[in-house]
Amino acid sequence: MNRCRPKLLAIASGGGHWEQLMLVRDAFADAETSFVTTMPGLAERSGLTAYLVPDCNRNEKVKAAQCALKLLWLILRLRPDAIVSTGALPGFFAIAIGRKLGAKTLWVDSVANAEEMSMAGRLARNHADRWFSQWPAVAEAAGAEWHGAVL
Amino acid sequence: MILATVGTQLPFPRLLKALDRIALKHDLRVVAQCCEVVPGLSIEQRPFVAPAEFDELARDAAMIVGHAGIGTIIGADRVSRPLVLFPRKASLGEHRNEHQLATARSMEKREGIHVAWDEDQLEALLTGPALAPLRRGESPTRAGLIGAIAGFIAEAAPQR
Question: Which of A28, A86, A106, B29 is the most exposed place for a label (fewest CB within 10 A)?
Answer without folding.
Answer: B29
